[in-house]
Amino acid sequence: APPAAVVPQGPPIDLTCFLHVAAQLLWQLDPFKAQLAALTTPADPLVSGVQMLMAEISKSRASEGSPALSPALLHTALQVLYAEQTRNLLESQPLHEMFETVLTKFCEARDSSFVSNVEKLLNIGVLEMCECECGEMLEPMSYKNFATAVSVAQIVGNAPAAGQPSSLVTQLGQAAGPACPSAACGSRMSIVRYLMPPVPGWMCVALQYPPRSGPPESADISTLLQRVDLEVDLQRAFRGVLTPLKMSLRGVLCSAATRCSAYFLSKEGATQGSWVCFDDDAVTTVGDEFGAVVSRCAFALSQPALLFYEVNDTGGATECVSCAVVDAPSAPPA
């Protein structure tokens, strides 16, 4: 099964701060902006509200100072997310789950084109097989998520059973499974993951932390980010992908106490080619190398929660890549 998230201790993330950062983060996804702008008569007020936010951010980025979206504008545009039940849910979740909940709410909008665009861009389909060296297989399980979770403890080598760090790429495609049900075996099974088409243009990777007491340490943040893969080859990460398909790290969503911020590699304007940091107050240039992001996060005690990878240039078809994926095997009949 997909790894379960560990809810971090501490006060909840400020909802308005989060929605401000989430809106700017979505603005960074060029296909999302383009497809949203092409919707002339949205059939849902939520879609109209998101359109309004994207237009406002474009306007602010074109002028010096990059003024923040006002809380009043966010409340008007995203009324659905401020409704009591949804607000309570968001404020009870860790940061990466808050972002997934926003995307799930987007997919409940009464506008099929908007929903289809969100799913094609960010929703990843996986089929899991539980296999044993003895040949035993359990019934496969398929699911779709807006984020794939990996263990931070395994990446940095602090997992209880970890002899060596287990890279982010390795964790995407495999995990430890249950004990083999065969009485003659007794070995531990392995979970292997097959990537199912269509492959989205972006992949979100949620960082799963073990329970902790107190705020994160600067050294821990630095160590983690230094071990994050800047490029992921989906052919290496997952089973079933016939051709190399690489994705590059484009963004990191972080939290610090009740606030959040994001770092993204800018593709346009005066900041093109540089990493920028944005929160609910300002947009600042961090540097041309990811190392500058590592240093900034470690200094500010900004804990990474969600990584954003974009498919490398595929001739413009970045919203939904059609890569060759072989059929996953079926479990043997009972």
Notes on the protein architecture:
The chain is 34% helix and 25% strand. The chain is an alpha+beta fold. The longest helix is centred in the first third of the chain and has 17 residues, at 45-61. β11 and β12 form a beta hairpin. It starts with 14 loop residues before the first helix and ends in a 13-residue tail after the last strand. The chain is globular and about 65 Å long. Strands 3, 7, 8, 9, 10, 11, 12 and 13 form an 8-stranded mixed sheet that branches. Strands 2-1-5-4 form a 4-stranded antiparallel sheet.
Please name the defining characteristics of this protein.
globular, 8-stranded mixed beta sheet, alpha+beta, disordered N terminus, 334 residues
Which structural class best describes the helix and strand composition?
alpha+beta
The percent range for strand residues is 15-25%
Low-confidence stretches: 1-8, 315-323
Query: Which whole number gives the mean pLDDT?
Result: 86
Helicity level: 25-40%
The number of helices is 13
* N-to-C CA distance: 21 Å
Helix and strand element order: HHHHHHHHEEEHHEEEEHEHEEEEHEE
Q: What's the total number of strands?
A: 14
Q: What's the alpha carbon Rg, rounded to whole Å?
A: 20 Å
* Largest sheet report: 8 strands, mixed
Shape: globular
